[in-house]
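Hello,

Our lab assistant flagged a job as stuck in the queue for most of the afternoon. It eventually completed. Since we weren't sure the result was trustworthy after the delay, we are filing this so someone can double-check. Below is the sequence as submitted and the structure that was eventually returned. Let us know if re-running is recommended.
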Amino acid sequence: MFGTITLPLWLFWLILLFAAVTFASHFFIPPVRWFLRRRMERAVAELNKRLERPIQPFKLARRHDMIQRLIYDPQVIAAVAHHARETGVREDVAFSEAKRYAREIVPSFSASAYFTFAIRAARFLSRQLFHVRLVRIDNDALAGIDPEATVVFVMNHRSNMDYVLVTYLAAERSALSYAVGEWAQIWPLSRLLRAMGAYFIRRRSRNTLYRRVLARYVQLAIENGVTQAMFPEGGLSLDGRVGEAKLGLLSYIVQGVDLSKRDVVFIPVSLNYDRVIEDRILIEAGRTGNRRFRGSFLTGTAFALRWLWRRVTLRARRFGYAAVSFGRPVSLKELRASDRGEVTAVATHLMNRIRENVPILPVPMVAAALLDGARSHDAVRDWISGRVPAWIDAAYPVHLRRGSIERTTDAGIDMLKLRRLVEEREDGTLVLSEKSESVLRFYAASAPLIDAALQEPEPAETAVGS
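-- returned structure --
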C-alpha cells in the first residue's frame, strides 16, 4: 500500500491536469461564474433603461435551465407519451429524443455578444454594403404598443442580409430572436448565432414530437415577452415577389399562445434592395425548381475577398440602396375579437400589409421601365415620371435619390451598367445583355406596384419630387 510506483512523466502531468480541472470546477469556477453573472445582470439592467422593449428574464435564463423547463413542460411530456405509444418505443427513449430536440433548438443568449459584437457588426456591414434608408416608420404607433405585449416583427425575405439589416435598425428597440434554418448549424457560426439569441429549426421535418417541442419553445418565449423576428415565407424569394406565408411558426403563435396574460403585437416589416447579393443563385433556383442552392461557403468567401480587395484598392462601391418600411402594428387580441384570428386570415392580413409597404427603389423602377420597352435615359426617366406622382399620392413608400427623378434614373441605370446587365451606346441607346431579362424581372417584381404598372402602363406625366 505504501510502496513506490513508477509512472511515465506524461501520465504524471496528465493526472495533475485532471486534478487541477476538478479542483477548479468545484472551488474556483462557480464563484467566478457567479461574479460574471452578477456583472452581466447589472449591465443588462442598465441596458434595459435605454431599450424600448427591455430584455425579458426568460431570454437571459441559463440555457440548461431553459432546456429543463422546456422538456418538463406538461405539453411536451404529453407529446412524449403520445410519441411513445405511436412509435412503440419506451417512454424514456422518447424523452431522450425530446431532450435532444430541445438542446438543438434552445439558444444561449449573451447580451454582451449581441450588443457589443452583433449590433456593431450589423451596423458596419449594412453601411459598407448599402446606402441604408428607413423609408417609413410610424413612431407614435410603435410607442403606443402595450409595454406588456410581446412584439413579433414579420418580414418579407429578400436576402440573407435581412437578418443583418433588421438587427441594425431595431437595435434601439430590443434584442431580436430569430428562427434560423439548417444552413446556420455550422461551427463556429452556430455558436455565434446561439449567443445572439437565434434558435434553430428543421424546416422540412415532419416529426410530430420535434414539431411539438419547437412549438412549445416558441409559445413559452412569446408568453414570456421575448421579442421575435420571423419570415413567414419560410425561405428567400426566388422571383422577387413577396410570397405566401407558410403557417408553421405563425400557427404556433396564433393558435397556441394564451392572450389572457399578454397580447401579441405583429409589426409588418417590408424590405427591398437595389442589389440582392445572391440574386443569380435565387433566380437559378427558381428556374430549376430546386431550393438546394449552389451557393457554398467557398463561393461566399470568394465574394467577400473580392469585395475586400476592391475596398483596399479604393474601387469598391456600395450596392445601391437597402430600404426598410415599418408598418402599423397589428394586435392579435384585436384580430380575435373581430373574428379574424384564424391563422390563415392572420397570415393573409400580415402578408398584405408587408406587400403594400415594400419600398420602391431606383433599380426596380429602372428595371421595370426597361422591360416595358424604354431604351434610352430619357425614355426611362419619362416612364418613372409618369408613375411616381400617383404612387406618392397613394402614400406608397417610394424612395427617390435626393428627391429627384433624374438622379433616381441615373442611379438605377449606373447600377445596371456596373453589373453589365445594360450597355449604353454612344448615341444614348440602352442595350440589354443576353442574360439580363431574368435579373430585371427579379427586381421589377419586388414591389407589387411596379408589377401592376408593367401590366397596365399609365400615360406619362410630369413628376413631383419626393
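-- support follow-up --
The delay was a queue issue, not a problem with the job. The result is valid. Strands lie at 131-136, 150-155, 177-180, 199-200, 228-230, 264-273, 321-326, 330-331, 422-424, 430-432. The longest strand covers residues 264-273.
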